[in-house]
Protein: Cell division ATP-binding protein FtsE
Amino acid sequence: MIRFDSVTKTYPGQSKPALDDLGVEILRGEFVFLVGASGSGKSSFLRLILKEEKPSKGSIHVLGQDLGTISTRKVPYFRRSLGVVFQDFRLLPNKTVYENVAFTLRVIGKSRGFIQSAVPETLKLVGLEGKEKRMPHELSGGEQQRVAIARAIVNKPQILLADEPTGNLDPVTSAGIMTLLERINAGGTTIIMATHEAGIVDQMQRRVIELSSGAIVRDQRDAGYDGQTVRDVEYEPVIDPATPMPDSEAAAAAAGATATVATAASGSAATTAATAAQTDAAPEPATITAAAPKVTPEVMRDAAPLYVEPEATDEVTDAAAEITAAATGQIQVDPEQLKPGEKPAEAASEHLTLAERLGLRAPGGPRRDDTDQEVGPTS
Ligand SMILES: Nc1ncnc2c1ncn2[C@@H]1O[C@H](COP(=O)(O)OP(=O)(O)OP(=O)(O)O)[C@@H](O)[C@H]1O
Structure:
């Protein structure tokens, strides 16, 4: 599903690599936490999977495709198999909940009929039924993140990347979001989540990949936030980087197969992870120097109910809206930007269109008045 072979990423002007000779494989259906101190390379790892950045050395395969061979123009098509969720939600402030989710589908040319059935279905899945007409600023932080998740999964991506999705949320709301992500994963979507939240990682007990100074210092199944430095997930380095992925995913991807969020093959990450095989070359234990996590294991334990079905959790989340409102004091989102009628956050890039910023169109591709339609269904 995702494979890094000897991947090094050094940003221009930096002497030390952000990622240093990484080799790792993530299988279909896994739920993987990326942990490590600030600056250890988690976001860089996710950006490489998205092909937002290119490796300086090594090769990356995602869904059977060698990312090095995908042309810039084809990147938006490739990204349609991936959903992304960020810490700061990144909703369109002047569009309703419905429109925020529908927007992605419109840009990629889905039919009106498809949109009319997919959007309500997805909003129901994330527990936002009945809130279609709300504007983002009329929602709690947890609800805004649910909209962002709905937008990320509405096109039924095979992979969901989440970069600190609970970073701006209080513990109870975070628990609701994790319940939702767990449910999406149970539907077959591979999830990779970067987080500093020890309590969440300890509760979920999924595969944990720990980075330190750009290197993997731990890759452990059924693990917690802090652990012994081990590598118990099998990874065989590819001798010839040109060798394709050793599984049938290339064919599936080539055929345009997509996982169905609600119905795809079930099975937990644990069952799909490779057999335990601690390598002789396991690196020395690393000291975790991440900032003190906001959601400690104790807080998470007290934040029950945790892994109940989202239908039940919604009430809890709604009841926690006030807590969320208090927590938004720590959110770095400017409330002014969330007001309808204001200009959207143009600061991301004044040169890119909205679709380009969301990765749905190739930067510099055809604009609104072009007749050359670049967007369209992927399969
Ligand atoms: N665009 C960039 N240009 C130069 N250096 C960068 C860039 N992006 C990241 N870095 C550097 O690469 C290293 C890894 O950064 P990265 O954002 O991947 O870490 P992280 O683990 O996600 O950190 P955090 O937990 O704080 O988000 C850091 O030293 C960072 O300063």
Q: What stands out?
A: Residues 11, 14, 18, 36, 38-44 surround adenosine-5'-triphosphate (CB under 6 Å). The chain is about 30% helix and 15% strand. Confidence is low (pLDDT under 50) at residues 246-293, 302-335, 337-350, 366-379.
